[in-house]
Amino acid sequence: MTHSDISIRDRACYLGEVLALLSVLNEQGCATHDALTGTDIEHRALLDWRTKISLCQQLRLHRNGVRMMSATSLALAAGRRLRLSSFGFAGSAFASADSLATAIEMTNRFAPLMGAKFHLKLRKEGSEAVLGFEFLHSFDIQEQRFCIELEMSKMLTLLREAISPDFRLTSVALNTSAELGGTNNREYAITFGTYPSFNAPNCEMRFDSRWLRANPVARCNLMYESCVASCERIMSKVERCDDVCMRVKNRLLSYTDTLPTLTELAQWMNVSPRTLRRKLADQGMSYNQLVDEVRKQLAINFLSTSRMSAEEISGRVGYSDASNFRHAFRRWTGLSPSDFRESMLHGMSVA
User: Fold this and answer.
1) pLDDT tens for residues 25-52?
2) Would you kindly state where each structural domain of the chain is located, as residue ranges?
3) Position 351 pLDDT exceeds 50
4) Tens digits of per-residue pLDDT, 173-192?
5) Using an 8 Å Cβ cutoff, are 169 and 85 in contact?
6) Cα–Cα distance, 221 to 69 (Å, whole number)
7) What gap in Å lies between CA 82 and CA 151, rounded to an integer?
8) Are 134 and 118 spatial neighbours (Cβ–Cβ below 8 Å)?
């Protein structure tokens, strides 16, 4: 089983990030009970290292947390508190990998076990190495900002633990506006050692390419293979939420080109088109409705995080005519694409 087979409702994530978030909130005087409201995470479950939760549960904790303190402060501080041991066998595999590239590949392979909400892409550009972050799921713009700041802070912390405490970044780029999360220069300086650039085309961290040649300090092939095997066993036993709609939606969201037809989706799920249609109907949904939802999410994501024109976006989400896309977008949000983008630049929330 790979991360692409797991939905945000499947209980596949360990408690490492939850415990780090709660630790920060508790220090600010926020009660654990209040932070866990609506998450369906029991207080006693926090004491059991075997407890696994879904990404949906953690996202609810995020939303509770940002009502109690600054979103940026919470995300960055929680990321700094995480350790490789927070992620069990996956953290041990990261630490014992034979190179930084292998550690990144392992993180992508076992994304849920590493609490990863992004696909990581490592490349070299001249004297710099670039670690890019691409969303694995479709979030609203406020959730995107929180998740990317948490993820970047976490990855930098883990890299320093695995490679060297001297590991430093040369720059950080975020694809959202500075106003959206509430800028906090002190937190950025403490976490990254630099102030991020905002409204960038992509989310990425840059560092000296010499670190690509550095081996994790606990490098051990035997340990790595053993931990990877354990991760595979854990992934095979993930507590699945039999949410056909979510599986189909995630599959549709994973496409960067033409969306698959219902027949193609049925083949992927090893069922007949008729069976898939019935399973969707049992959950009060149809293929066309899901396609409409996915187009909406993709369009909102492109408008919020890229500089593509409405004409370019209309083609990316499956409309041959930009006027039809504008009509659909107004139906979805009550705004034109240009008005929506303007509202995002000013940090307004649009349903």
Assistant:
1) 999 999 999 999 999 999 889 999 889 9
2) 10-235, 243-346
3) no
4) 998 877 655 557 889 999 99
5) no
6) 43
7) 11
8) yes
Pair 213, 127: CB distance under 8 Å: no
- Residue 96, amino acid: S
Secondary structure class of 21 (helix, strand, coil): helix
Query: CATH fold of 10-235, please?
Result: H-NOX domain (3.90.1520)
Locate the DSSP E strands across 248-312.
Answer: none
Give domain 243-346's CATH architecture. Answer: Orthogonal Bundle (1.10)
Give the pTM: 0.73
CA dist 281 → 56, 207, 253, 293 (Å): 23, 49, 20, 16
For the stretch 301-341, pLDDT in tens is 888 777 889 999 998 888 888 999 999 999 998 889 988 88
Query: How far apart are alpha carbons 53 and 97 in whole angstroms?
Result: 26
Radius of gyration of the chain (CA): 21
Indicate the length of the chain as a whole number. 351
